[in-house]
């Protein structure tokens, strides 16, 4: 996606997610999730995508499993029952389908945020007339993970040379706890200082803001965006109609 | 720009931050405002830059004339708020912490330089020309395509100054513009200031060091102490500067250092290091050296060898970006060398755990923001897990040595930059390390802070600790270190017998 205009990537990601969610077919969700992982592998971020997606999906899947499968009241094909727990084939299928759709959604959104060129996205948003502050918030949000990781590393080093750390799970847990408060305080301090200097550099500027580097949005990609979004919208409408689903 | 500040008070502050100040800054002039820590320089900078008092609750009694317009302040709690968008077209301000000046939402230095121009609506071809011009003047050509988040401390400052200068504001306010810069970079900044003045820009330099390169050229000078101007004019400022806590080159007393001992405290032997290739960062092994096969990035250190003896103070010098910080961090095991050996008090730094190295060595980071994270100075200095927490008497001693006993219960971020640096130093001293590793310890320190640092180094050496410090301040190195080791761009380090 890095070679495409950020909006093209966004249109592709949004269309894929919309159609997958509307279609509610397990095989489509599975195919989209697999395609997202394959695309990440090509872009060299498969490992990061998998790690981030696992962190987001684990609690979601757990809650879906509990709500739809473990305490199912409607399903007739009972697989297991003990006290309030009632596991049915229908419940399991519902949880599985929902889980796959969630996975497809999370993987596609994360893939886009990992592969999009942040700076290009801000420039594209600027060029599209979106308020500069909004562009900054989007950029800062996308930069949150790497920036927090950098700050955490710096705090970790400063604490490590004062004797924290060590081997074993307990020591790691203790160091992680020690880093939490400084991380939040340092982030707030940094944001406060930077916001003053952003203003002193004339940010957000007025209507006559200019761009030093603009992102080319080729005609072919514009056409592609319109086509993809239109097709996705048509597909969603079709699927939403009684005979579609 | 004309300033009349009868008084300025921060909300809830007992004393005035500034009072009785008159300053007229004609086009093309160079004004040096000197003062020690807490003298009111940053407050003055904030008022000139237009963000003080703003909505911060500060009370200003006085007036500012800028570009034909006048703003009157009556000392009340609801001062007029200037339109920063207009103000910044006339005044550009680079703070002491250059890193916070960079927007960090641009992916290259060139785009970072363009940030202010974009906000001001400068057409693209003009931006291109101005950036090329500023880059040529400050010799930033090789940095233009670099990621601003991955610059060395000195490079950050150069980029910040260029980003301010490129905007073409009539008044340029620079807070400690030469701090942390090597001699060549400092000369480029001084040259740029000269050219900007020739083009009509008024430059105001706020500093706690009377650097010859700037002080000699200054048409007017002002000395601040506790927020009050105590001397006016270059000669008077020079005469009274040392007493007001300003560093005056050539005025430092030279203490005789005891001879070093024979035992090695810190040893670098054949140390090599290359930057990992940005696209494919090699995964480092948890312990030990990096895989040689994974090298192939840009070489930074090539075969560096030298030893710091117990009771010896060695200065590490060299241009910005030549690997001084990398070399220092290796002593605490925070960066592993590609090849060669770093030995700290007998421990192999590549093999030992950071915690083990931390029990014998202490490191002062270049930027205190990387090192301070507690709520009060005392908590900060006492920080440590139960078994390796500094003893209360060591904490008291470190606070005393760094002149911080009176501010032990203050939040570190509420202190002026010089004292914040001393807090970071106290955290190192409280652990009573046998090896002291200090990254640019003189940067941000005013005259009083430097005097304290000098005493701390002398004490450390006298009790047999080995000290390795990086610095661009050759005079400080001469008067406080036994010798200097110079790192050059891409060439092996050569031990030079500078100093005494």
Automatic annotation (TrEMBL), chain A:
CDD domains: EcfT. InterPro entries: ABC/ECF_trnsptr_transmembrane (IPR003339), ECF_transporter_component (IPR051611). Signal peptide: none annotated. The chain crosses the membrane at residues 26-43, 50-71, 91-114, 223-243. The keyword Nucleotide-binding does not apply. It is a multi-pass membrane protein. Keywords: Cell membrane, Membrane, Transmembrane, Transmembrane helix. Its main location: membrane. Pfam families: CbiQ. It is found in: Membrane. It comes from the Bacteria. This is Energy-coupling factor transporter transmembrane protein EcfT.
TrEMBL record, chain B:
Belongs to the ABC transporter superfamily. Residues 3-250, 286-500 form the ABC transporter domain. The keyword ATP-binding applies. Keywords: ATP-binding, Nucleotide-binding, Transport. SMART domains: AAA. GO terms for molecular function: ATP binding. The keyword ATP-binding applies. This is Energy-coupling factor ABC transporter ATP-binding protein. CDD domains: ABC_cobalt_CbiO_domain1. Pfam families: ABC_tran.
């Amino acid at each position: 996606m890095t070679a495409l205009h950020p909006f093209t990537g966004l249109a592709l990601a949004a269309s894929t997610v919309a159609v997958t969610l509307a279609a509610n077919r397990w095989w489509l969700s599975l195919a989209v999730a697999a395609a997202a992982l394959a695309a990440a592998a090509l872009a060299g971020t498969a490992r990061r995508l998998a790690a981030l997606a696992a962190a987001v999906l684990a609690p979601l899947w757990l809650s879906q499993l509990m709500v739809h499968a473990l305490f199912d009241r409607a399903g007739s094909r009972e697989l297991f029952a003990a006290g309030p727990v009632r596991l049915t084939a229908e419940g399991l299928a519902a949880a599985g389908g929902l889980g796959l759709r969630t996975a497809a959604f999370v993987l596609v959104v994360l893939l886009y945020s990992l592969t999009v060129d942040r700076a290009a996205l801000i420039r594209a948003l600027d060029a599209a007339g979106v308020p500069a502050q909004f562009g900054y918030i989007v950029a800062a949000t996308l930069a949150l993970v790497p920036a927090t990781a950098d700050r955490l590393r710096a705090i970790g080093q400063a604490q490590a040379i004062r004797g924290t750390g060590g081997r074993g799970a307990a020591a790691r847990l203790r160091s992680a706890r020690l880093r939490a408060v400084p991380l939040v305080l340092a982030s707030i301090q940094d944001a406060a200082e930077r916001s003053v200097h952003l203003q002193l550099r004339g940010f957000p500027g007025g209507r006559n803001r200019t761009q030093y580097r603009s992102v080319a949005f080729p005609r072919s990609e514009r056409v592609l965006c319109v086509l993809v979004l239109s097709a996705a919208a048509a597909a969603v409408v079709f699927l939403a109609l009684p005979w579609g689903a | 720009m004309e300033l009349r500040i009868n008084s300025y008070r921060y909300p809830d502050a007992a004393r005035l931050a500034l009072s009785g100040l008159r300053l007229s800054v004609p086009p093309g002039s160079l004004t040096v405002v000197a003062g020690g820590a807490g003298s009111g320089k940053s407050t003055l900078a904030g008022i000139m830059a237009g963000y003080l008092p703003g909505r911060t609750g500060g009370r200003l009694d006085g007036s500012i004339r800028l570009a034909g317009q006048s703003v009157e302040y009556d000392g009340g709690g609801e001062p007029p708020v200037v339109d920063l968008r207009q103000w910044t077209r006339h005044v550009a301000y680079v703070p002491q912490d250059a890193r916070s000046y960079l927007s960090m939402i641009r992916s290259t230095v060139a785009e970072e330089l363009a940030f202010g121009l974009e906000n001001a609506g400068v057409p693209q071809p003009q931006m291109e020309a101005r950036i090329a011009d500023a880059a040529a003047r400050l010799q930033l050509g090789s940095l233009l395509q670099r990621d601003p988040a991955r610059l060395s401390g000195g490079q950050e400052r150069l980029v910040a100054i260029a980003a301010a200068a490129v905007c073409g504001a009539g008044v340029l306010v620079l807070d400690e513009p030469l701090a942390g810069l090597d001699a060549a970079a400092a000369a480029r900044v001084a040259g740029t200031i000269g050219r900007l003045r020739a083009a009509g820009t008024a430059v105001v330099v706020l500093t706690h060091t009377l650097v010859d390169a700037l002080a000699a050229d200054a048409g007017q000078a002002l000395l601040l102490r506790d927020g009050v101007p105590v001397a006016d004019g270059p000669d008077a400022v020079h005469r009274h500067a040392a007493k007001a806590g300003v560093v005056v080159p050539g005025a430092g007393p030279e203490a005789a250092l005891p001879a070093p001992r024979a035992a090695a405290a810190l040893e670098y032997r054949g140390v090599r290091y290359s930057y990992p290739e940005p696209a494919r960062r090699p995964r480092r092994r948890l312990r030990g050296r990096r895989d040689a096969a994974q090298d192939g990035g840009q070489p930074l250190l090539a075969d560096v060898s030298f030893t710091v003896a117990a009771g010896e103070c060695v200065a590490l010098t060299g241009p910005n970006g030549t690997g001084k910080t990398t070399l220092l961090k290796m002593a605490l095991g925070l960066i592993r060398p590609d090849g060669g050996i770093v030995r700290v008090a007998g421990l192999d730094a590549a093999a030992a755990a950071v915690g083990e190295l931390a029990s014998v060595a202490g490191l002062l980071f270049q930027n205190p923001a990387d090192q301070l994270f507690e709520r009060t100075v005392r908590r900060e200095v006492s920080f440590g897990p139960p078994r390796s927490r500094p003893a209360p008497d060591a904490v008291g001693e470190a606070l005393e040595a760094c002149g911080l006993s009176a501010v032990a219960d203050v939040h570190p971020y509420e202190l002026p930059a010089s004292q914040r640096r001393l807090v970071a130093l106290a955290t190192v001293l409280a652990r009573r390390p046998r090896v002291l590793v200090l990254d640019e310890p003189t940067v941000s320190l005013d005259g009083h802070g430097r005097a304290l640092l000098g005493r701390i180094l002398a004490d450390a050496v006298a009790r047999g600790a080995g000290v390795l410090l990086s610095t661009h301040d050759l005079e400080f190195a001469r008067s406080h270190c036994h010798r200097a080791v110079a790192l050059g761009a891409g060439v092996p380090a050569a031990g030079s017998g500078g100093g005494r």
